[in-house]
Amino acid sequence: MLVLLPPSETKRDGGEATPLAVKSLGFPALNATRRGVVADTVALSRTPEAAAKALKLGPKQASEIVRNRGLRRAETMPALLRYTGVLYDALDAPSLTEEQWRFAARSVAVQSALLGLVRADDRIPAYRLSFDSRLSPTLKKRWAEVCAAELAVVDGVILDLRSEGYAALGPLPEREGVHYLRVLARDESGTVRALNHFNKQAKGLFTRAILEHGEDFASTDALLAWAAAEGYELTRSVDRPGELDLVVPEVVGVPGKLSAVLRSAS
Fold it and tell me: One GO cellular component from the entry (predicted)?
C-alpha cells in the first residue's frame, strides 16, 4: 500500500552534512524533472525580489530565499523528519521504532513541490516551494504527468491524504483500492460535516496508527476490516465514489482531545 501525505510549509532546520543526492531518492523516474525544478528554484533565488513574488513571501521571510539559494549544498534528513506542523507533529516520526521506519519507507510518500513524490526516508534539504509557486513551466505541468505515471504502477491500496493543490501534482490512477481520505466530524445530533481545524491532526494520527500496525493492505476491504477492529469509523463514501470517510466525534474540536477520540465509540 501507499499513504500519500502533503508536505508542510514549515521545515525542520539542520540534518547531516550530506547534500541532496537526487539519484538516491525513491521514484527514480522523476529524477530529470527533479533536477530541473531544483535548478530553476536555485536560479530564481539569486534575484530576491523576483523570488519573493514567485514564492509569495513577505519581507520577514527573506531567509527562505537564502535557504533556496543553498539547496544543493544544504544538510539533509529523512522527509518524515524534515516536515513539521500539525500533521507531522501528530504523526511523531521521531518516536517511530526501527521496524515502523522500515514500513514507512515502503508505504509512505510525500508530495513535494520541489522533488515530486519522495519516500518517507528519502534525505531532503529544507526548502521553500509550494504547489502554487510561480515557476515557468508551472509545477503542475512539470509534475502531474510523471507523478501520475509512478502512482499508476503502485500495487494494493493507495490512501490519499494530500490537499487538493498537492493532489493535482500527482493525479491518482482510477482503479479499485485507490481512495482519497476525507475527515468528517459528527456532532451530538448525529450530523456529519467537514472537520476543519483538526483535519491535519486526524490525518497525522491515523497515519501513525497505520505505521504502528505495519500491514501492507492488499485491498480496501482489508483496510476497512482493520479500521473497524481498531474502533475507527472508516467507511466508503456514499455520495463520493472512490473516497473514504474517517468520521470522528465533534469533541475533537477541543484541543488535545483528538487522540483520545479518533477511535469512535460507535
Answer: cytosol
Report the phi/psi class of residue 190: left, alpha or beta, with left for phi > 0 and alpha for psi in -120 to 50. Answer: left
Q: What is the pTM of this model?
A: 0.93
Give the C-alpha separation, 14 to 30, whole Å.
Answer: 25
Tell me what percent of the chain is helix, strand and coil, each rounded to the nearest 5: 45, 20, 40
The pLDDT value recorded for residue 251 is 57
**Beta partners for residue 76, in sequence order:** 16
DSSP string, 179-229: EEEEEEEE-TT--EEE--TTHHHHHHHHHHHHHHH-----SHHHHHHHHHH
Chain position carrying cell 513541490: 113
By CB neighbour count within 10 A (0-12 exposed, 13-18 middle, 19+ buried), where does 119 fall?
A: buried
pLDDT at 250: 67
Instruction: Name the DSSP class of 173.
Output: P
- Compute the C-alpha angle 152/3/42, nearest 5°: 80
Task: Report the first-to-last Cα separation within the chain, whole angstroms.
Answer: 27
What is the predicted pLDDT for the residue at 204?
Answer: 95
In the numeric block, the cell 547534500 is attached to 19
How far is 264 from 246, CA to CA, in rounded Å?
10
Distance CA 8, CA 187 (A): 29
- pLDDT for 263 equals 61
- β-pair partners for 3: 108, 159
